[in-house]
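Quick one: structure tokens for this chain, please?
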Amino acid sequence: MAYNGAIDRRILHLAPVFFGLAKAREAAAILGMMAGADDVTHFFGAFVGLLLGIYFVLNYYDIQTPNL
């Protein structure tokens, strides 16, 4: 069986998503140690960016999301 050279680009999008989720989990674990407002706003900005990235990738590939 020969490899036709085409890869599914969705796999390439999953790696950064899982990396972002792992980093968000670590940041949530240390959230209690954060003292300044700048740390908290950077954390929530990264979290919102991660969610928007997931949303846009799902829309790009026409993957239906459940209505919440």
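The mean pLDDT is 76.
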